[in-house]
What does this fold into?
Amino acid sequence: MTSPTHALPLADQHGRVARDLRVSVTDRCNLRCTYCMPAEGLPWLPKPDMLTDDELIRIVRIFVGLGVTQIRLTGGEPLLRRSIVDLVGQMAELRPRPRLALTSNGVGLDRLAGPLAQAGLDRVNISLDTVDRDEFRLLTRRDRLHDVEKGLAAAAEAGLTPVKVNAVAMRGVNDHSVADVLQWCLDRGYELRFIEQMPLDAQHSWDAEAMVTAEEIHTLLSRRFTLTPLPEEDRGSAPAERFLVDGGPETVGIIASVTRPFCRACDRTRLTADGQVRNCLFSRRETDLREPLRAGASDDELAALINGEMWVKAPGHGIGMAGFTQPDRPMSAIGG
Ligand code: SAM
Ligand code: SF4
It folds into this structure.
């Protein structure tokens, strides 16, 4: 078997090459989505454990040198990192310039969308699971729907288009209103994608039986809309199955991350806010870059650590298979 030193940068043993880096810039959050965090929050990373801006940019630069072409800033809630606009600006100066995206809950984006776009952000994905205020409050444990709406409008205004919306359907909470979310997004020109709930909550309370499957979401949407599948070739490494809505041109995506995983085409790699490289959301291992970096490691040494971590990426996440164990880190501390 070829050793990682002879392989392409960021390649793994199963023939995949990572081009898409997800960077978690903080594990903190201002919402408490029930499928993600407990009501009381989590023990946040101590400040000294987090990468400084300079450390983070240095590692991202090494990733770009290894072939990363797209960077997505996430968290926790990435807008809570005070330096977020500056980080985007510094990443926009990297060469070759990576495409820059942000995944956010949208709270505070009304203020930041303009500065982020000016700094070089190319697009945003905003998470919004319901457009009903009571459901939103139940789901996120915060009464902030109006802030998210303002954030979305500001993103469109700032030219961060197409504005994409991500939604998770929860049984008995918002599953009956998925078509309302689609209609709301269609009315405003936002591109909606549903994603199956995954076993990544801090409480470890995920239940396969309770999960609203991609197939169910399709059925629920089809009661109000005609969905026509777009050809598979249009999908590439993108995980969403996309459908024209009522003949198009608008589309809706459904990501069957659990029931029809896209691991074979996965091109992702991840960096946590405390400087760990992860080759998969569901990995039970990670490689520390922070301590070697602080101990004076060279760029080549850090690149070798990154390549070593990617090389051992598992062929698939294995949810539902014997031996699957949920990772200790929740989604909010990995970077979704
Ligand atoms: N706070 C930001 C946000 O909510 O967009 C960024 C981080 S959040 C962890 C990223 C995405 O992960 C969100 O779209 C959220 O809905 C999704 N997410 C969180 N926990 C999840 C779970 N257990 N299963 C599926 N998606 C989840
Ligand atoms: Fe916060 Fe995003 Fe998790 Fe919701 S999904 S609690 S907004 S990190």
